Amino acid sequence: MSRVYLDHNATSLLRDEARAAMDQVLASGAGNPSSPHARGRAARAVIDDARQRIAGALRVDEEGIIFTSGGTEADNLAVLGTVRGAAEGRGLVTTLVEHPAVLGPALALQQEGRNVVRVPVDAAGRPATDSLLDHAHGAALVAVQAANSELGTCPDLASIGRGLRELEASVRPKFFTDAVQALGRIQVDLEAWGADLAAFSAHKVGGPTGCGVLVRRGGSALCPLVHGGGQEDEVRPGTENVSAIAGAAVAIELAVLEQESEASRILGLSQRLWHDLRSAVPDVRLLGPDLDDAHRLPNTLCILLPGVNGRMGVTQLDLEGLEVSAGSACSSGSLEPSPVLRAIGLNDEDARGGLRISLGRTTTEEDIHIAVETLSRTSHRARKS
């Protein structure tokens, strides 16, 4: 049985170029980058080079690059590190559809007595800019994702950033965006967005798992979550994963370099998938923005497939050779309705039924053909049973 992988929002397959960079570091016998001897200096040189390359790709200062264990830690460090370091009474403003790596820290802050506001979204998954700005006055941090992993929705960050910059400096919060799903799929422009902090994850763009990046612009102050070392400007102590950082730098560089051409190719494949699937299963529903909406990811389709429950459907489709997911990969094992789909107005039954299909660099036209056949066959079979 040939298998088709359409779960790139969960993880993208490791690029050969990233693997080669990692293998080179591992074969070199590089030591601890904090050690002063030759092997330590060699490891430090790898990290310094990676930091420079990632900063160049993201168009930020090298000093603003902080390496973490992944996107989740980068999100936690941005949210908890900013709010806990702020004056008492200043809290967090975010949305109902953020990744659990943001909503989890939001809950922790609320339990600590900080004020936390979760702004609702419309049927496409977008928060109202006016509502965000109304609550932002005097907050420590506003956190809005650059792209939603389930719906593919991309809020208008530039508009939010402009509104925040118009607030008086004394009450202006920092602006953080979880850009994990955006990198390599849409143009990432932290300057235009007005973002003070942004999180990225290497494995979403063909890099290794276990390596994330938090960008800190303008010297934004952060309280560390872990204590006991001076690494990463004393913000994220712990010995750095040198080989993973080397692979991450290569993958991020290539993702940014290829973004425009790859986004165009992927959008064409996504449109083909939706057109053909709708022809085969007329009552299938697409959730979130329309595919021709400029403010959405080109690679992501969240659908309600008649007769197929999302989490059970993932297993059924896997047996047929099609790998997709139900909601965020970080919570896809849960039997609870998707909080994102509930937030856009779906009832519990439908919110359990969403299937997320996410295309990537390795997706081909043949994959799309097989996926449509498999999805339509599974739906027809489910409705007959």
CATH architecture of the largest domain: 3-Layer(aba) Sandwich
What distance lies between the first and last C-alpha atoms, to the nearest angstrom?
24 Å
Main structural class: alpha/beta
Q: Approximately how much helix is present in the residues? A: 40-55%
Q: Helical stretch count?
A: 12
Number of domains: 2
Biggest sheet character: 7 strands, mixed
β-strand amount: 5-15%
Mean pLDDT: 94
CATH class of the largest domain: Alpha Beta
Describe the structure.
This protein is α/β, with parallel strands linked by helices. The chain folds into two domains: 4-12 and 259-384, Aspartate Aminotransferase, domain 1 (Alpha-Beta Complex), CATH 3.90.1150; 16-253, Aspartate Aminotransferase, domain 2. It has twelve helices and twelve strands. Strand 5 (141-143), helix 6 (157-165) and strand 6 (174-178) form a beta-alpha-beta unit. Helix 1 runs antiparallel to helix 8. It starts with a strand and ends with a helix.
